[in-house]
């Protein structure tokens, strides 16, 4: 990315941010990274699609995992890497009241035709309690769009697309510039998604033979810009400690957490601070 132009809610330019504000030296689109990881592991890993874990039962030598569709299976350990709303975390750690904390921000994302001709550049349009961020990267004919706005809870994450789109339109009804055109494009997008900026705060990231990695255990919120990077770094740290622990998974889990927690704490602080730029609240609210 080369930089981001700042606009007010009417679409008038007010300033510019350097590339470092939203990007690193190398940016890899998430869908491409997923393809790469799948390709280099497919010969050694069994992938099961269209199923979900329904129960976890630990015993002396492993974990019995029950699935919604497939037959139950036995594993030495279970590593939950299933995102901010982790099913593994719910099953292994219980309700964990206050673990999921909302940053006062929700938003919709999608891609559309790059009618602005943006090339490795972005536009950030800000108004009271809302922000529109759009940028061109990767495919030159596509524009990535993100509508973010203040919310009291992540409840909209569990609603249907129509209700989510209506909430976005209401939040940006007074915006000028590119906003009206992009609100129209939102309804036509086939890659629409909606999510809230949340963090996960746990006193520990493992329980017996079950451990958490990435957003499942310590989400820093999308506003941190460290979701995928933090997950990959956490995975490497966990794997390294397991490899050197001579079969002592408890020692490996403890070393993994001790090594990574300061790094995660810093990323979560950055995520809270950045949430204010997109219309959110830097404070933490339990979901």
TrEMBL record:
Keywords: Monooxygenase, Oxidoreductase. Pfam families: FAD_binding_3. SUPFAM superfamilies: FAD/NAD(P)-binding domain. The keyword Oxidoreductase applies. Residues 28-247 form the FAD-binding domain. InterPro entries: FAD-bd, FAD/NAD-bd_sf, FAD_aromatic-hydroxylase. GO terms for molecular function: monooxygenase activity. This is FAD-dependent monooxygenase. It comes from Streptosporangium jomthongense.
